[in-house]
Specification:
Radius of gyration: 23 Å
Order of helices and strands: HHHEEEEHEEEEEHEEEHEEEEHH
Oligomer: single chain
Largest sheet: 8 strands, mixed
Helix content: 10-25%
Strand content: 25-35%
Length: about 425
């Protein structure tokens, strides 16, 4: 059962039920969403979980197509299935209609779920400036005819979350800033029912002057694949002198806040350090928390891209591959709903207010709380870049939290 990644429910579908069908489950979920004050922003939750579900589908499908011993792929279904534990697993709703969001456009799913794929075997999606992008390339052709053409590639700045992986090179150049291109001199022929070794990419990433999100597009004939790439400047983050960084809400942290100080509260991502928290995962839930109740309930990140922290850390509003390390840590369960920088979305079964990155006032000072354990992930360029962005923000004039937590509330979230 490839896929089955849950998407939060789209309440517009309620209008499609007529006659004897009564979607009591969806009505109950909507009522809970309204009670928690989430309805005004709910569409963004649906969209963020949908984008993550589609991304996870693509990765599973491509992994299957790379596996030569596998004889095929069968998707159990791409529509919501209300008949077994409220399984909201679809790009389509339970009426077999595409959900009215960009992530559910059929052409976006067909970009990667097709009988022929150019497979770029990337070791990772994130790089530091000066590294080389080295990857083997092969074509899996399970279609009925040959794929023929010159292998070519384009590396361009990413402009949006939903770039079409099947854009023509001319269209790419008109939309995005092309960083580098390359092509073979000979025609490659990929015969049906086989894998064809195309060669390898070796692209120097020495052109980056700022943290940059890129799109790598490869093509042979009419077969096109696209991959996200992030390249980060070399940096060694150092906590500013006007900020106190701590792993615990201890006596010294309280003293600094009482004196109006700035605190970067970055505990270890474990249950002892964060007693009121859940273990997060990169993907959304599988199938349904009602059917598979051992799941924690996390549904991925909803990221406030307008926040100053992300001025030099390119990101979309939803979890993507540069968040793999940070998204797989923990999230605190807040005592009440608050405005968050990075929200950990919750399953419809719980709808708890949860955060991975949040700022607030406490006592007489200001706090930025991170549950992403960046201090233990500095071997990754994306973690170093995010840490540097956080330090820049904390030391500047923009750090003026509007939310507030009491000393007692904060003590329930982070150990003393």
């Amino acid at each position: 059962e490839v896929g089955q990644f849950e998407v939060l429910p789209d309440f517009e579908e309620l209008e499609s039920f007529h006659g004897i069908s009564d979607p009591v489950n969806l009505k109950l979920i909507k009522k809970r969403v309204e009670e928690r004050g989430l309805l005004p922003t709910w569409e963004k939750y649906v969209e963020a979980t949908g984008e993550l579900s589609r991304l996870a589908y693509r990765e599973e499908i491509e992994a299957a197509m790379r596996t030569r011993e596998l004889s095929g792929i069968s998707l159990l279904g791409l529509q919501d299935f209300p008949g077994q534990g409220t399984a909201l697993v679809g790009m389509m709703n339970s009426h077999l209609e595409p959900k009215p969001y960009d992530f559910a456009r059929p052409e976006r799913f067909r970009e990667f779920f097709q009988e022929c794929r150019i497979l770029v075997k990337l070791p990772h999606y994130t790089y530091e400036a000066g590294e080389r992008l080295i990857a083997e390339v092969e074509v899996a052709n399970f279609g009925k005819g040959n794929i023929e053409g010159v292998f070519c590639w384009t590396l361009a700045e990413k402009k949006s979350a939903s770039e079409n992986g099947n854009c023509e090179p001319a269209e790419i150049k008109s939309k995005n800033t092309v960083i580098a291109t390359g092509e073979d001199t000979e025609i490659t022929i990929c015969r049906p029912g086989s894998y064809t070794e195309v060669g390898s990419l070796d692209i120097p990433l020495d052109f980056v002057e700022k943290n940059t999100a890129l799109t790598l597009k490869v093509r042979i004939g009419d077969c096109i694949s696209a991959y996200p790439i992030w390249v980060y400047r070399k940096t060694t983050p150092v906590c500013p002198e006007n900020v106190y960084e701590t792993r615990a809400f201890d006596v010294k942290t309280r003293e600094i806040l009482q004196n109006g100080g700035r605190v970067y509260l970055s505990p270890d991502a474990d249950k002892e350090s964060l007693p009121n928290s859940i273990k997060t995962q990169f993907t959304t839930d599988f199938w349904s928390v009602g059917t598979f109740a051992d799941q924690e309930g996390g549904m991925g990140q909803l990221i406030d891209t307008e926040h100053p922290i992300f001025k030099e850390f390119p990101t979309d509003f939803h979890t993507d591959w540069q968040w793999w390390i940070m998204a797989s840590k923990r999230a605190v369960i807040l005592p009440h709903p608050m405005k968050m920088i990075i929200t950990e979305m919750d399953s419809y079964a719980f709808l708890r207010p949860m955060a991975q990155l949040i700022e607030f006032r406490c006592l007489k000072g200001k706090v930025l709380l991170s549950t992403m354990e960046l201090h233990k992930s500095q071997q990754y360029p994306e973690a170093r870049a995010l840490q540097a962005a956080i330090y820049t923000y904390l030391s500047g004039e923009n750090f003026e939290p509007a939310e507030e937590l009491t000393e007692e509330e904060l003590s329930t979230l982070v150990r003393g």
